[in-house]
Amino acid sequence: MSKKVLLTSFTTWLPHQKSNSSDDLLTEIAQTSEINCALTFLRQLPVDIQQASDRIIAQIHSLQPDVIICCGMAESRLNLTVESQACRENQVIKTWVDVNQLIADLTGVEISHDAGKFVCEGLYYSILHHLKTQQLKSYCVFVHVPILNNSNFAEIKANFTQIIHRMSH
């Protein structure tokens, strides 16, 4: 049976942004046939922790995914970045995915221990907290996507495809 994977992205939040690179990446992933699992997309979430979290949690209960990969744009980063944890006030929740193993041998992918203290981290914390308190078995990571351009797009798409493949097998 094919694993169920939920992929999420945000809309833009600043006037100069024509699109959100995380959403652009998911648009491309939706058009590929390289991934052998059941993908569900929850795209262009509002840049609001509560609203975005509520929509993802509702989708988790409806879909019961095996894997959740939340994505956000990181304009200042150059590489695809997998977040190891999320913080809220003095509380830290680490993903139960072995992120070192997840990105092993992928060039141009990094691990971050700081999801940004913005909506991305708030959302990641909310989802990890929900999975933990509800004792759900879904594996979840948050991936920050840099600004996409002609020189980095192919590598980022290939690496992200590998992350989906590794998490769903």
Automatic annotation (TrEMBL):
Keywords: Hydrolase, Protease, Thiol protease. The keyword Cytoplasm does not apply. Coiled coil: none annotated. The keyword RNA-binding does not apply. It comes from the Bacteria. Pfam families: Peptidase_C15. Belongs to the peptidase C15 family. This is Peptidase C15. It comes from Floridaenema evergladense BLCC-F167. The lineage of its organism: Bacteria, Bacillati, Cyanobacteriota, Cyanophyceae, Oscillatoriophycideae.
